Amino acid sequence: MPSDDVPRNLAEVHERFTPLLITAAGDLAEEGLNVAPGDALELVHDFYVVALEGVLTGYRPYLSKFSTYLYWAFRIFARRRIAREARLRDVLVPLEEGMEQLAVQSSAPDAEDDPAEALDRRVTRALEQIPQECRRVLERRLVHRENERDIATRLGLTRHAVRQQLAEAFGRVAVLMDHAETIDEDLRPFALRLWRDEIPLMQVAKDLHLSRRQAQKRYRTLVRSLVAAARALEDVPTVRETRRKDA
Predict the structure, then answer these.
(1) pLDDT band for position 5 (50/70/90)?
(2) Cβ neighbours, 10 Å, residue 19
(3) Beta-carbon neighbour count of residue 239 at 10 Å?
(4) SS (H, E, C) 108-122
């Protein structure tokens, strides 16, 4: 059992409490939440990146032991993250179909429309509105089924840049498809101003009374919060697989 001395930083938390948090993830799985064995470490890592600073700041020793506090803080975080990722499918499957249909249209622009293959108009509009650099990485991922390394090599980008562009692309499409609930609640107003209303970052900063540095930090946090969605793109079934399953 870890000591209940309050850790001073992430390194201490990682060393002393990671096993406890993996156990917490296992407890959630036993309660019926969708936590695959390989997902536990990713959930813990995301908790450290996104929430730990606030958890350490908010801890009050007179209320509970630190290990108890951390355990329940992680459970709350993990439940919200799992619920949000469960909603990704509402965006991911039509998004994959939209990308494939756009690719077909671009290669055969004179082909007649097949009503049976008609796409949700919101998907098409969203894909047409996102920046070209975001759309091209989505196409490589969803139409050509390439992984981050292959996309980076083909487009002359770092894997980090590919991951960032996939995350932003997903966020933009989610907002434009009226699925903003896939974005963390505290970041949602920021994302809507940026990606739905197309307000420049510095104007958003002014509207929200943020400094330039605060706005840039919030943007980085927003994109980082969507990296999990970008990772989930790897698991989207192809259109053909989806139709075969539904047949």
Answers:
(1) confident
(2) 12
(3) 19
(4) CCCCCCCHHHCCCHH
> pLDDT at position 142, please?
76
pLDDT tens, residue by residue, 90-129: 555 556 555 555 555 544 444 444 433 444 566 677 778 8
**pTM, rounded to two decimals:** 0.55
Q: Give the DSSP letter of residue 51.
A: T
Residue spans per domain, the chain: 10-86, 90-183+226-246
Tokens 């990296």 correspond to what residue?
227
The neighbour count for residue 147, using CB atoms within 10 Å, is 12
For residue 131, what are the CA distances in angstroms to 1, 103, 137, 176?
Answer: 50, 16, 11, 13
Question: Which CA distances in Å does 171 have to 95, 184, 225?
Answer: 12, 11, 9
CB 234 within 8 A of CB 147: yes
Percentage of residues in the chain with pLDDT exceeding 70?
73
Q: Which amino acid is at 160?
A: H
> Would the CA dihedral through 191, 196, 201, 204 be positive or negative?
negative
Comparing CA positions, the residue from 228, 229, 230, 240 lying closest to residue 143 is: 240
pLDDT recorded at residue 27: 86
DSSP sequence for 97-150:
HHHHHHHHHHH-TTPPP-GGGPPPHHHHHHHHHS-HHHHHHHHHHHTS---HHH
Sign (positive or negative) of CA dihedral 79, 34, 18, 170: negative
197-208 pLDDT, tens digit each:
989 999 999 998
